[in-house]
Amino acid sequence: SRLEDLRVKLENEGLVNISYIVVNHQGTSSQKKFHLLQESVSDYITVYQQEEQQADVWTTLNGNKDDFLIYDRCGRLVYHLGLPYSFLSFQYVEEAIKIAYCENKCGNCSYTVPDIDGVCENITKKTDEKLPEVEPKPTGQHSHHHNPHRHRHHH
Question: Which pTM does this prediction carry?
Answer without folding.
Answer: 0.76
